[in-house]
Write a structure and sequence with these properties.
This protein has 331 residues and is α/β, with parallel strands linked by helices. It is 35% helix and 20% strand. It has one domain (49-92, 127-321): Ribokinase (UDP-N-acetylmuramoyl-L-alanine:D-glutamate ligase, 3-Layer(aba) Sandwich). The protein is built from 11 helices and 14 strands. It is globular.
Length: 331
């Protein structure tokens, strides 16, 4: 059983805090209409960190954006959502990434592209933080309770190492596993989340430290959580309405970490059982999010305060019925 000593993130508050880095981009969503896209902060890192901040947790994004219109939009979204923005860099020489989601709400199918469907211009790629960012955030990295990463680079591994050494739970959700950087990053992961549809197929449990908690997602079939010899399968939660499945994995992570942070605040530590319980909460949150377009459609439609109340009371059939009543448009 994992049992870590609680760490204060500041002298003023004992609430456990989160820092994270990785893919943060503008999500441009075309839902049945190419003439009327909507835009929101996206990317797995962006979605998870912003959602946790909107749920009331202290969150420190350590990300690299461009000093362009998209970068300013993303910065403002983090700020408006309640994140601490001091470690968000906006480089004068770079541009911010954009991910296009094209969704057919009738068939509940979607696909992604990094090329504008109207101008056919390719959007900029994601750029990692550098060593200077890690140095600037060092004191915070030594005091947060959770560190999240969904990409790897030399500097990100340095940040993971810094937070791990100070006792943080390192939640690693890799997008690829094809280089030496991944192997190094895995050494610091407390929890690693792998998708069967991407990186999970190339990473065997035998390749990981047996102390690492491994979450394997199986798409619509659910997920499996393993810790040493303990292995539990969790079937997917029922979705009362399915419009867009984008962001389901991010909602699972959000619900899981929200529960871990709440219990950490109450108990002063976290346990493996919190991960098992958290994935169930995250699955129910993901199922409800499928009723709306966009990776955080549930938050946009219902409001963060309603989602917070729902998570505190329990995500039950009553909550699902209320959300379905918000309308069938998916927004």
């Amino acid at each position: 059983m994992v049992h870590l000593t609680h760490l204060e993130f500041s002298k003023e508050s004992a609430r456990p805090a989160v820092a994270g880095t990785g893919l943060t981009a503008v999500d441009r969503v075309y839902a049945n209409d190419y003439s009327a896209p909507t835009e929101a902060l996206g990317g797995s890192c962006g979605n998870v960190l912003l959602s946790l901040a909107m749920l009331g947790h202290p969150v420190f994004p350590v990300v690299n954006l461009g000093d362009d219109d998209h970068g300013r939009f993303l910065f403002n979204e983090f700020e408006r959502g309640g994140c601490e923005t001091r470690y968000i860099s906006r480089a004068h020489t770079g541009s911010s990434p954009v991910i296009v989601e094209i969704v057919d709400t009738t068939s509940a199918t979607h696909h992604f592209t990094t090329t504008c469907p109207q101008t056919f211009v390719r959007f900029p790629k994601w750029r990692s933080i550098d060593r200077e960012h890690v140095c600037q955030a060092a004191e915070t990295l030594k005091s947060v309770s959770v560190f999240y990463a969904d990409r790897v680079s030399e500097s990100i591994i340095l940040a993971m190492e810094e937070a791990k050494r100070a006792g943080a739970l390192i939640f690693f959700e890799p997008a690829s596993a094809d280089d030496e950087l991944f192997v190094r990053a895995v050494r610091y992961a407390t929890v690693i989340k792998l998708s069967d549809e991407t990186v999970g197929n190339s990473v065997a449990d035998e390749d990981l430290d047996p102390r690492t908690i491994v979450i394997r997602t199986h798409g619509a079939r659910g997920l499996t959580v393993s810790n040493g010899s303990v292995r539990r399968y969790f079937p997917s939660s029922f979705a009362p309405r399915v419009v867009d499945t984008c962001g389901s994995g991010d909602m699972v992570t959000t619900g899981l970490l929200d529960l871990v942070l709440k219990r950490w605040y109450r108990d002063g530590s976290w346990k493996v059982e919190d991960i098992f319980d958290g994935v169930e909460v995250g699955q129910r949150l993901a199922a409800l999010n499928c009723g709306f377009t966009g990776a955080r459609g549930l938050f946009l439609a219902a409001g963060a305060s309603h989602v917070r109340d729902m998570l505190d009371r329990g995500v039950d059939e009553g909550a699902a019925s209320h959300l379905v009543a918000l309308g069938g448009s998916g927004r």
